[in-house]
Amino acid sequence: MNGKKSFENRIYNSRFFKNAQLKAEEIAQNPELLNNLIRQADEKALEKGRRVLGDAWDSLVICFRMLQAYTRGEYRKIPWKTLVALVGALVYFVMPLDFIPDFVFGFGYTDDVALILWTVRSIKDDIDQFSKWEEEGSIEWKLN
Q1: Which residues 6+ apart lie within 8 Å of 106 measured at CB?
Q2: CA distance 78 to 86
Q3: Partner of 111 for a Cys bridge, out of 2, 100, 137, 142, CB 3.0 to 4.6 A?
Q4: Is the pTM higher than 0.85?
Q5: How far apart are CA 111 and CA 93, in angstroms?
């Protein structure tokens, strides 16, 4: 197993991610909680910017759009497993104390980025379907 996979596995198997997954199921069932999570994650992403988030930036943006379309009832083709995985990754992202705490200078977001990218890879087909739906309908992205 290479170092990247090992790091991702350690994050995925951490108590921090397990706690995020438990919260994700509750949040995914409640549009108000989900909108609050999206707002928090969006604010954190904007605060940290592309420089810190790197490759995860574009992935977060499309995930925010997909979840917003879901909460507005415009796009409901997200399987429950995908929804919970994505919400779990966002819960983890907004948690300041996780596998590598956010305050650790230079490394604090390494685990967040790795988990976001891993999640996006694991739900790629669902993201691709959403992107196709979005292109066909050309909806605008904005937070409520």
Answers
A1: none
A2: 10
A3: 100
A4: no
A5: 9
* Under 8 Å between Cβ of 44 and 95: no
Buried b (16+ CB within 10 A) or exposed e, 11-25: bbebebbeebbebbe
| Interval 5-23 mean pLDDT | 84
- Rounded to whole angstroms, how far apart are CA atoms 79 and 123? 10
pLDDT digits (tens, 9 = 90+) for 77-121: 999 999 999 999 999 889 887 667 767 766 777 888 888 889 999
**d(C-alpha 91, C-alpha 37), whole Å:** 7
Side chain identity at residue 17, one-letter code: F
Rounded CA gap, 56 and 113, in Å? 6
Residue whose tokens read 């983890």: 92
Nearest to 67 by CA among 34, 89, 95, 44: 34
| Rounded-to-integer distance, Cα 110 and Cα 54, Å | 10
Distance between CA atoms of residues 12 and 17, nearest Å: 6
